[in-house]
Write a structure and sequence with these properties.
By secondary structure, the chain is an alpha+beta fold. It is built from five helices and eleven strands. The strands form three sheets. It has a seven-stranded mixed sheet with strand order 5-6-7-8-11-10-9, with helices on both faces. Strands 1-2 form a two-stranded antiparallel sheet. Strand 1 and strand 2 form a beta hairpin.
């Protein structure tokens, strides 16, 4: 872009962080002289700014026509080179790190179901939730808890079933309405259930902490009433409104490990989330994953 005017004599000033410094050196300066010079400087500056705006607008209106031939020429060269490569007949390997042009964000998703490999046609394999997808569901639950922690006044009056619906809203936003609440399954109604092709892939129960006995009862409830032999992924969302949350999380792993169906610990995330391997109540060789997530939710002041 060329200069906006044939006469190029813009105002001069020293540019500082938050102001301009314009030196005036003259004997016998008066307030009127300084004011007149300042007004003249502002008029000149505004005049140059207007010229720059007009020149920029004119330049921008023609830049597309100026650039398009260069882009078309480059595109033609690339196509010609690809045609040469294709005519050779040798396979070309794409770089793994090569970026794609555009990737749509995964706003809604379906559970990634892993079907066990089978050899006989009559047998229909049972769907199991991929470990990555299982962690994704737990991540959505953690995100909802972060919302609660950032907006405590909005959640301090909610009951157990009200909190459950907030988790369901978030899960359904990702899993296209597959998450349901208070759904009859096996011998009872579970709080959170995600289904795929009429099969359960994730089951969760929401409970307020009322002591170690309550946690043991919840585990029994899940194993006895909610988990069928086919169900292998479950979670307990443990809400605490007591003051001593440290004492609560200290008791969780020992209480779970004391259960008759407990087999082994399978890791933990921070101080408030644990993953355990249990056996099916009626089949010692059938293992399932049970995660326990403890949250300190807002309480009445």
């Amino acid at each position: 872009m060329s200069a906006p005017s044939g006469v190029w004599d813009p105002p001069q000033a020293a540019v500082h962080e938050s102001y301009l410094e314009v030196p005036y050196e003259e004997r016998g300066l008066t307030a009127d002289n300084v004011r007149n010079r300042l007004d003249a400087l502002l008029r000149t500056t505004n005049s140059y700014l207007i010229q720059f705006q007009q020149a920029a607008a004119q330049h921008n209106s023609t830049i597309a026509d100026k650039i398009r031939p260069f882009i078309q020429a480059r595109k033609q060269r690339i196509l010609e080179r690809r045609n040469v490569v294709a005519s050779i007949g040798l396979p070309m390997k794409r770089r793994d790190e090569a970026p794609t042009t555009y990737t749509l964000p995964g706003i809604r998703r379906k559970p990634q179901i892993v079907m066990p490999r089978v050899t006989g046609a009559p047998f229909v394999p049972e769907p199991t939730l991929a470990e990555k997808e299982y962690e994704g569901i737990l991540s959505i639950i953690r995100g909802m808890v972060s919302v609660m922690e950032r907006s405590p006044t909005a959640f301090r009056h909610l009951r157990e079933e009200d909190l459950r619906w907030h988790f369901l809203f978030q899960l359904n936003g990702q899993y296209e309405g597959r998450a349901t609440g208070e759904t009859f399954n096996y011998k009872g109604k579970t709080d959170i259930l995600i289904r795929e092709n009429d099969r359960n892939v994730f089951i969760a129960e929401c409970k307020f902490w009322k002591g170690v006995g309550s946690l043991t009862d919840t585990i029994d409830q899940i194993l006895d009433r909610y988990l069928h032999w086919r169900d292998t992924k479950a979670a307990i969302l443990l809400f605490n409104r007591n003051k001593d949350f440290t004492n609560v999380i200290r008791q969780v792993p020992t209480t779970v490990a004391a259960h008759a169906c407990f087999k082994r610990a399978a890791g933990h995330r921070g101080e408030t989330e644990w993953k355990f391997v249990f056996r099916n109540r009626d089949d010692i060789n059938r293992e399932l994953i049970l995660s326990v997530l403890a949250f300190d939710v807002p309480r009445e002041p």
